[in-house]
């Protein structure tokens, strides 16, 4: 019986193209927003130091896996909702660097260090505590929050604006409104949801 089941499993795998298959790294299951569905129906997720992209399934082919090393601990991950021109996503790491990545290149192409406003203490850099969030706008901007500090980063001009007094609590989730490109929702650590508007 065991031989028959092994032969069946082998027959199922023989129809799939295994060339170029990469085993993806494990995900950070204990982190909020570690998994994202991409506009092409792929999967984007982060482990401790890497961002992994798993392509959509195709008939008789294994999914393609791309692993990109961030070189720091990933705290937050967000994906652009429009992948027609560029397939972009963003990371915020434990050194508070915001990096915007081009998936096709596999490297960061833009970014800023606006959240690096205080020196790290002597304690451990990594914490399971969620204290940051990122989201893309429909106007080529990236919103990033670290604790209560919000930064709006314009990809077209490579400049950013800081909003230090917008929130009184730690932001753990940012989401754009599907109907109004200027309205966003921020989920705060204590459970409050704040709707706010940012005009261009």
UniProtKB/TrEMBL annotation:
Domain Gem-associated protein 5 first beta-propeller stretches: 40-199
InterPro entries named in the record: Beta-prop_GEMI5_1st, WD40/YVTN_repeat-like_dom_sf, WD40_repeat_dom_sf
Protein name (record): Protein rigor mortis
Organism: Culex pipiens (House mosquito)
């Amino acid at each position: 019986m065991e031989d028959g089941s092994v032969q069946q499993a082998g027959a199922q795998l023989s129809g799939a193209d295994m060339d170029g298959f990469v085993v993806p790294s494990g995900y950070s299951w204990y982190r909020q927003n570690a998994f994202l569905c991409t506009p092409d129906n792929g999967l984007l997720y982060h482990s401790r130091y890497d961002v992994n992209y798993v392509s959509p399934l195709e008939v008789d082919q294994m999914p393609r896996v791309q692993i990109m090393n961030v070189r720091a601990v990933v705290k937050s991950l967000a994906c652009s909702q429009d992948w027609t021109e560029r397939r972009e996503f963003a990371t915020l790491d434990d050194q508070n660097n915001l990096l915007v990545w081009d998936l096709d290149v596999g490297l960061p192409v833009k970014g800023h260090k606006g959240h690096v406003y205080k020196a790290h203490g002597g304690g451990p850099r990594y914490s399971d505590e969620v204290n940051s969030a990122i989201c893309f706008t429909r106007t080529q901007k990236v919103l990033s929050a670290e604790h209560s500090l919000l930064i709006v980063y314009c990809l077209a001009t490579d400049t950013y604006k800081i909003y230090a007094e917008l929130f009184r609590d730690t932001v753990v989730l940012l989401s754009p409104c599907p109907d109004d490109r200027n309205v966003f929702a921020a989920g705060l650590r204590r459970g409050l949801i704040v709707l706010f508007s940012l005009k261009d």
